[in-house]
Amino acid sequence: RDWYIVHRAGKRLSAVAQAFRDFMLQETTAIVHVPQV
C-alpha cells in the first residue's frame, strides 16, 4: 500500500496539518525510504 502527503504549492498548511506532515515524515523515515522532493 502506498500513502502520499500532498498539498498545493501556493497554499500554506495549517499548524495542525504542518505538525501532522512533520510527524509522518519523521516517523516513516525510520521504517521506509521516503523520497526527497
Radius of gyration: 11 Å
Count up the helices: 1
Distance between the termini: 20 Å
In helices, the fraction of residues equals 25-40%
The number of domains: 1
The average pLDDT is 82
Number of strands: 0
- Class by alpha and beta content: mainly alpha
Shape designation: globular
Strand content: under 5%
**SSE pattern, N- to C-terminal:** H
Largest sheet: none
- Ranges where pLDDT stays below 50 over 5 or more residues in a row are none
Describe the structure.
By secondary structure, the protein is mainly alpha-helical. It has one domain. 38% of the residues lie in helices and 0% in strands. The protein contains one helix and no strands. The radius of gyration is 11 Å and the shape is globular. The mean pLDDT is 82.
List the helices and strands and how they pair.
Blueprint: H1 15-28
List keywords for this structure.
37 residues; mainly alpha; 0% strand; globular
Brief rundown of the structure:
The protein is mainly α and 37 residues long.
